[in-house]
Amino acid sequence: MRDLLFLAHRAPFPPDRGDKIRSYHLLRHLAQRWRVHLAAFIEGEDETVVREGLAPFTAGVALVRRTKGRVRAALEAIATGRPVSLAAFDSPALQRAVDDAIAAQDITTAFVFSSQMAHYVDAFSGPIVMDFVDMDSAKFAAYADTARGPMRWMMRREARLLLAHDAGVARRAEASLFVSEAEAALFRSRAVGARIHAVENGIDTDRYDPAIPAENAPHPLIVFTGQMDYRPNIDAVAAFAQNVLPVIRIGHPGAHFAIVGREPAPAVRALAAQDGVIVTGEVPDVRPWLAAADVVVAPLTLARGVQNKVLEAMAMARPVVASPQAAEGIDHDGTIRVAEARGQARAVLDLLADPDTAAALGKAARAQVIARYGWDARLAPLDALMEPAP
């Protein structure tokens, strides 16, 4: 069994948010064929819990606690001409851990999860497989379109510098991965000559089981799940609560909108003052909230790649109303309702008015996920990509 260096900007345990779910399943898959040495950042997690969770899949683990704030990262980035995304994850301690692993182990290949980590293997001479997941430079370009003043300049700068960085990394890598073919195609148009592939996310349909007991919550219940300090999620729930929920409550005065996710930003917490809005903060498990939902919504206007929140709701056999942006990249075969902002209230109202149709839609969505999105099937193409070109 050969030795693999696996780098991640967040330790892949616990798998409790979109990027960590993907990195966790990638790590598990690779550990079947490689002896994996992991180097990653942790933030608020308990280090002992993280190490215990990763132990079955790793031969060695180096964890560095990331404490650098956004302001410091921005100042360092401007001073050095780098993207803020790279400065934010720059750490001499992690570089030492990477160098020590390469020196002590017979590392033949590096797997890098997220472009913020690519510079740690600048001196590594072996093949590199790069998982960009999403095209983050496009996300910052979209932010710039709605920003003003200095922030508009910063977002444009970030989009430009990050794209140049990522294109250079991709041209060096044996393979560059994206979570959907749409993301891969967009990056191919910007990084000519790179070897770019789509390796999609999956879903654990045994864990996301509709039979899980539901949360005791008011009905009708509309649910959104996500990391609630993440700007696309913040914007999505704010717009839905302010513009869509009031229309729904005309027809269903008792309807509630539950925003389920950790670290709600002040703008999200403030929504709890609105009639019908529930802001849970961190919960032990989102599945009971999904099980309780009459409808799950994903009204994101800025979304990259495949939205795990949509796959999870589908696996739980919930009827889903998603924006076109949130549905992009998901092979749902008509088993979710896709609606622009102006049509989301109507789509939710139609499902609430016809529980039989809503239940049938949810059942079809789960069947689609089982058929299309098992992790083993989604990650099978990775095995060939991990082999260096002859």
From TrEMBL:
Q: Which organism was this protein described from?
A: Sphingomonas gilva
Q: Which UniProt keywords apply?
A: Transferase
Q: Which InterPro entries match?
A: Sugar_tfrase_PEP-CTERM_Stp1
Which segments does the entry list as coiled coil?
A: none
The family database entries (CDD domains) matched by this protein are listed as: GT4_PimA-like
- Which molecular-function annotations from GO does this UniProt entry contain? glycosyltransferase activity
Protein name, please?
TIGR03087 family PEP-CTERM/XrtA system glycosyltransferase
